Amino acid sequence: MIPPLQEIRLRSIARWVRDSSLPAAPPPSEALESRVQALDEAMMQTFEDQEDSLKLRLMKQKVWGTEAGLQQFNLDRMELWQEVVADYLPPISDPDLED
Length: 99
Fold this sequence. Notes:
Number of strands: 0
Distance between the termini: 38 Å
């Protein structure tokens, strides 16, 4: 399912926040929860906006509602979600692994 269920998203975001704060101390649980919720809401809003744009594009191409359009929509939706995640939760570099 794209995007994942909220419980899974929140757990993933919390893990990213904790991992990205290393070696500094992770934020207190209240601050962590607040930041995780804010990131989740922003990610979902961005995704929904882009998903709406995708639907409009497919409608303009006159493929919305067709089997080919559904396949394109599902593929593009997965790519959109990956882009949103990469924008909001970029990979964390490990200074111990860098030269």
